[in-house]
Amino acid sequence: MTKIIKNTTSQHPNNTTYYKHLSTVHPPLKLKLLSLSICLMTSPAWAERTIQTTGNGVSITTENATVNNTNLIIHYWNNPALPNRQKQDTTTYGIAIGDNAKSLVAGSIVIGSSTATENHATTISGASGFNSGAHLIIGNASYANGNNNVILGNNSYVDGNGLTAIGREAVALENSALAIGTTSAATQTRAIALGHSANASGIGALALGSSSGSNNQYTASGANASGNHSLAVGTASDSSGIDSIAIGHSAQATKASSVALGNGSSSTASNSTAIGSSAKANSNSAVALGNNSLSSATNSISIGHSAQATKNSAFSLGDSSIASATDSIAIGQAARATKNSAIAFGDSSFSNATNSIAIGQTARAAQESAIAFGDSSNASGVNSIALGSSAQALNNSAVALGSD
Fold first, then answer.
1. pLDDT digits (tens, 9 = 90+) for 258-273
2. pLDDT level of residue 122 (50, 70, 90 thresholds)
3. Are residues 147 and 181 in the same domain?
4. Would you call 319 helix, strand, or coil by DSSP?
5. C-alpha distance from residue 158 to each of 52, 162, 230, 270 (Å)
6. pLDDT tens digit string along 196-222?
7. Is residue 157 part of a domain?
8. Does residue 146 sit within a domain?
9. Which of 100, 102, 172 is nearest to 142 (CA)?
10. Is-contact 281 295, C-beta < 8 A?
């Protein structure tokens, strides 16, 4: 049994006849399609529209359209001067909605001037899906290659399997990568980039942060995690070493297992750690803890605001303390140990000779192997010893005991 419904009010040159083979359709669907056709054909707004079916397919359009079994095309075009606009739904279970929409593979859904070339792909507004597998693509000029990918945003791009790119010009290039944010980029396996211009380019890397722009098409100037298994959190943060961590605005962790925590902190050597605003650890296994602290030699440690340990195995503890020689130790606010193996212990204590020791507030040991013990004590001769508050040992091998 065949039912024919003609659009007798239409003068459109592409007006066609609606055909439906009712015997092959489920009864409820027959009634729905018949009702839809009658409604559309009798409505003045659809006076020049066409409904055409083939098998179980449905096409609702003002232009020539073709559908296969179990397909649906819906298109609105009201300019008869452009008769070449085509809607294509050439596969089973496809849906194409919009001008120049193309559903070319099984189970694909197309909305807008888009093309779906993958099974079970969904594209909306000028997007394209290629190669194989299912995709969800929403955005103009976006492109997906691989399997099971998701794009939400204009001019975005994914190439791999299980990828997600969300945001304008977002890029995800390796399996299981995730890029969220305008011009964000996740370009290695399991990499995650979150934020405007965030860049995760190491395997398993995580970049969290934003910036005002990007350097080029695939390199961003937001948070940058380029080392494998690295973590970068903060605007313009950079973790480019393997297993490195950079947290804070402009934090830099650039070598293997380096850690930089704090705005402007910098850890630029293997196994180095810088914690604090503008803290810097610039040599292997160096540790800088405190705002503006500095450890610039192997195994050096500085702890405190503006503390410095600048030679191998040097140790400084206290605000503005300085240990500037190999194996030197400075403990206390503004304490200074400036020669090899020198020790200064106490606020403003000063030990500036090899193997010298100054213990006490403002204590001073000024010659080799000299010892000053006590507040304001002074041992300024070679091998001299000053014990007591304000004790003075001024000659070589001299010993001063008691106050003054």
1. 999 999 999 999 999 9
2. low
3. no
4. coil
5. 36, 9, 22, 33
6. 989 999 999 999 987 633 333 334 457
7. yes
8. yes
9. 172
10. yes
At 343, the amino acid letter reads I
| DSSP annotation of 27 | H
The number of distinct structural domains making up the chain is 2
Hunting for tokens 């605001």 — which residue is that? 305
State if pTM tops 0.85. no
The answer to whether residues 152 and 246 belong to one domain is no
Residue whose entry in the numeric block shows the structure tokens 């693509």: 137
Are 137 and 180 contained in the same domain? no
Closest CA to 200 of 209, 208, 191: 191
CA–CA dist 75, 67 (Å, integer): 12
Q: Are 285 and 273 a contacting pair, CB within 8 Å?
A: no
Q: How far apart are CA 37 and CA 32, in angstroms?
A: 9
| Sequential DSSP letters for 34-53 | HHHHHHHHHSGGGTT-EEE-
Which residues, in sequence order, are bridge partners of residue 240? none
A 10 A CB-CB count for 3 gives 13
250 and 277 assigned to the same domain: yes
Q: Give dist(CA 172, CA 159) in Å, integer.
A: 7
**Amino acid letter at 223?**
A
Segment 324-333 shows an average pLDDT of: 98
Decide if 266 is inside a domain: yes
The backbone torsions φ and ψ at residue 27, rounded to the nearest 5 degrees and listed phi first, read -50, -50
375 touches 361 (CB < 8 A): yes
Rounded to the nearest integer, the mean pLDDT of the chain is 77
| Helix, strand or coil, per DSSP, at residue 106 | coil
Partners of 138 in beta bridges:
124, 152
Q: Among all chains, which residue has been given the structure tokens 């398993």?
A: 204
Domain with 198 in it: what CATH number? 2.150.10.10
Give backbone dihedrals phi and psi of 97, rounded to 5 degrees, phi first. -130, 115
Pairing between β-strand 2-5 and β-strand 18-21 as defined by DSSP bridges: antiparallel
In eight-state DSSP terms, residue 333 is T
What range defines the domain where residue 225 resides? 170-212+220-282
